[in-house]
Amino acid sequence: QVHVVESGGGTVQPGGSLRLSCASSEQTINSLTVAWFRQAQGKERKVVALISSIAIATWYDDSVKGRFTISRDNDKNAVYLEMRDLKSDDTGVYYCNTNPPHPNYWGQGTQVTVST
User: Fold this and answer.
1) pLDDT of residue 55
2) How many alpha carbons lie under 13 Å from residue 73 in its C-beta half-sphere?
3) Which of 22, 51, 72, 88 has an alpha carbon 20 to 30 Å from 58's alpha carbon atom?
4) What is the mean pLDDT of each run of 10 residues along the chain (116 residues)?
5) CB neighbours of residue 43 within 10 Å
């Protein structure tokens, strides 16, 4: 079974930056499109960024475009999300998974809180 671990979250002030990491226990994820999902309290989980298997293509939700950058390192079975100019609406639990998501690949997520 694939284990996915997200890390790098924290509490920052508006305008701050964070770098999230997603580590997979298997190389299987390297051949798949991977997405970062955000789940705000009381809301459904949504894709905020995704990256194709060999990092040729990326996509961003309009709410994060120009502020977030997704990348991957297949040698490390890892996917990253650089977040800058963070806003209060970015608050939530961030997960990585394939896109479409695989039910067995959900990790615990990492909490990002943007607050004064």
Assistant:
1) 72
2) 8
3) 88
4) 91 98 89 96 97 90 98 94 98 96 94 96
5) 9
Phi, psi of 3 (to 5 degrees): -110, 130
DSSP 8-class letter at 32:
S
Gap between the Cα atoms of 85 and 62, Å rounded = 14
Distance CA 102, CA 100 (A): 7
Q: Which amino acid is at 77?
A: N
Question: Rounded to whole angstroms, how far apart are CA atoms 76 and 62?
Answer: 29
For residue 65, the model assigns a pLDDT of 98
Per the DSSP assignment, residues forming a β-bridge with 114 are 12
Closest among 46, 18, 44 to 115, alpha carbons compared: 18
Tokens of 53: 């298997």
Q: d(Cα 79, Cα 93) in Å, to the nearest integer?
A: 16
